[in-house]
Fold each of these.
Amino acid sequence: MGQIVPLTVVILAAGQGKRMNSDRPKVLQPLAGRALLAHVLDTARQLEPDAITVVYGHGGEAVRDAFADADLTWSEQSEQLGTGHALAQALPSIPDEHQLLVLYGDVPLVKANSLRSLLRYGTGDEVVVLTAFVDDPQGYGRILRSADGAVSGIVEEKDASAEELAIKEINTGLMRLPAERSREWLSALSNDNALQEFYLTDIVAKAVWNDVEVAGLPVTSATEVLGINSRAQLAAAERIIQRRNADSVMECGATLADPARFDLRGKLTIGRDVFIDAGVLFEGEVELGDRVQIGPNTVISNSTLGDGCLVHANSVLDGVVAGPECEIGPFARLRPGTELAERVKVGNFVEVKASDIAAGSKMNHLSYVGDSSVGGGVNIGAGTIVCNFDGAVKSRTVIGDRVFIGSGVMLVAPLKIGAGATVGAGSTVTKDVPAEELTLARARQTVVKGWKRPVKPAK
Ligand code: UD1
Ligand code: CA
């Protein structure tokens, strides 16, 4: 049959995550730069449910605040008495005829398609549990099946016998339940177990007792249902999600020097024949045109680079818009508000902030350009600094087309440098500079004839 409707997704997210040893609620721990819960919500939304309820508790306000603008129902579980108790908190606001899909805030990698198979199963009267076969079942509840293959129960690790511990089919925690029956099953749960918690997993035995079919559907890839209880598992999940990111970037037309050393914390859009060297990190929204090449150990956040741009090793770009064929780095730092037109060159140890730089201009070594407008065909010599801040206010500098600025120049803003002007090396420029002339603002070189170096007096 088709997908069962109506549907409420309930996300259990109230646990503290003791094993993380963190002050942060577990579901706010970052995975690929976003909270665990954000990943689960994304997946839930892909199923287009009628409602999404999040059960929150530990660090509750922080969790709610992090998702303040999302269209969610919140159910508080003020004491964390177990997963069954958590689901019970959500039930009063859910209509009887709804199907419940239970997701866990700490199982973030599950794919919407795997959940769709749970939703498609049967007629809607069943309990459907997503299971997984794993080599190392440690830490998970084990799936018990009767002789006919139906699921007869789930036993938690702490309550399992030696024989049950050997079972390799585990409970992912994710399941589909009919809302009306769940009310009675949940109210009948007991906490007579190793953890003295009300286990959601005990609902299975109750359903079986009531002659309700319990189906166990194994997920295709166990990596999807990794539960995150420790920082080691968080790190393992990070590598899984980054491998998925790397695969999709390669599919779109990028060569990755090493897919295991690729990190994306946001959204990356790329053209064709892009090359990304080892150890590159992308954050926020990044767009790369055709044939862009990114050197190793580079960090690029919220930036757009035009076709054929070349970013050399160890550069840090944040909030940059670059036209085609620009060359950046190595060791360049481009900060928010940097706009480069085409064929601009920003070389090693150059920092640019809140500045627009027109076509073909170059600043190749050791410069700072801030709060400036730089024309086309400009050459800024090594070690030139735009002194944009006087300790109180920041001022702008405007440099015309074809200006040549020698090395080691201090440009004290506010300042205008006319088109075609030349500023001699070592100048400290405090007044506007006329177009097309040579301006020097430095002490003249003098020679003191016959001068002798002091010598040490004899002992
Ligand atoms: C649970 C399952 C286990 C399964 C595993 C899969 C139970 C009893 N056990 O164990 O069978 O193999 O997940 O990852 O269900 N939570 C609350 N309120 C609570 C307790 C937990 O909201 O009172 C939330 C947590 O925030 C978490 C989820 O429920 O998102 C699972 O809780 P956790 O304590 O991590 O359960 P596990 O021991 O991993
Ligand atoms: Ca868990």
Amino acid sequence: MKTKSIYTCKSCGYQSPRWLGKCPDCGEWDTFYEELTEKPSERTVGTMQSQALKPQLISLNDVHMSQEIRFSSGMAELDRVLGGGIVAGSLVLVGGEPGIGKSTLLLQICAHISNKVLYVSGEESPSQIKLRAKRLHIENEAISLLCTTDLNEIVAALESARPSLVIVDSVQTVSNPQMNSAPGTVSQIKEITMTLMRIAKSTGITVFIVGHVTKEGAIAGPRVLEHMVDCVLYFEGDNNHIFRLLRAIKNRFGSTNEVGVFEMEETGLTEVANPSAALFEHKDTTASGSCITCTMEGSRPFLTEIQALVTPTFFPVPRRTASGIDYNRMVLLMAVLEKRIKLSLSNYDAYINIVGGMRITEPAADLSIAMAIYSNYKDIVLPSNHAFLGEIGLSGEIRPVSLINTRIKEAKKLGIDHIVIPYANLNKCNDISGVIGVKNIGEAIRTISN
Ligand code: TYD
Ligand code: MG
């Protein structure tokens, strides 16, 4: 075996025989680091040696399917995201920004498991973990701690203790000392994940690993990690927002459309079973510029309030501020309002806010954004039993939206009985009581004036 230097990009895993300032694959600057690799001295593939192997082939029809064994994490929201509970022997990656609550969530899972659990931390000391456990009122005899950054120690602990669940917090801090590269590099992360995957599959131990995210929001130690694991969960939200959303980005045992909703409180994360009601609680029913819509997070409907403030400006260039929606979408919708229904918005500053710190990326909320702007501009209060759904095209037409029945059902559950939807969606509605179909933005506005 000969050793050879190879340069690997930290961000995407691209490899080059020499150092590069900019990665030709992902375009990141200064991400290459040197690794020593061992090169096989001779080609073995296709030689007599491989021809001597006798791989066992199995007919697909003869494969017996064993039902996967699932157990509950004790949190219905997490079980829902995982597709109906934790699958025994699976490897789950939990990603998210620092301070979002990954360690808290995983420690809370430990509290609910009655079998042996091993919590491995490369970041915190036992007393720090104990402090968190005290805040969460966790006193579970079955939880053992291991504070190490050495992969070999983790493997040895798993072999001797044989827990049913192990948590590795975080994958970036653990390393295999036999390898030349530093912790957190692509080759270390691959090695750790592969080792844990092998253990999970051969022993049935369920593994949860925490992965930090880069400034751009991707799980650091690039996508290679996401390809290897069974599930990738992503925890998002920030301290100023009410909700923390747990999304499945990848799930080999269920749908990726599920979203779990949590709230961070003094004593840890609590589940929010009915987020629409929580968002709806503090709505001011007397102010203009507020409009209700129903957005989808995966397959889950959220009743959301859009707020707009439109005020005269004294500056030549009016201000536009969008919080929770795309700025360009806001400008586009204002241009449509200006052109199609002659709202002269060019002398007005405009601010849009989505209540509760939600982020809306789907165009189905277009009509409600336009209605909130219109409502504040004309100072007309939209009744709190009205909701608006629909995508707006450049000619002011209202285009159909997906999952219309789920959205209508959610709105009705919270007492909304006047739902304006795209006309093209009407024939797909199961229940059209209180539902009004509109073809363009002018028609939508007329539904509130009569
Ligand atoms: P943590 O779980 O350590 O986040 P991560 O592991 O993702 O970096 O902590 C999340 C934040 O939540 C931390 O700033 C403190 C706060 N927190 C609470 O508000 N209540 C609690 O009960 C706990 C344990 C933490
Ligand atoms: Mg942590």
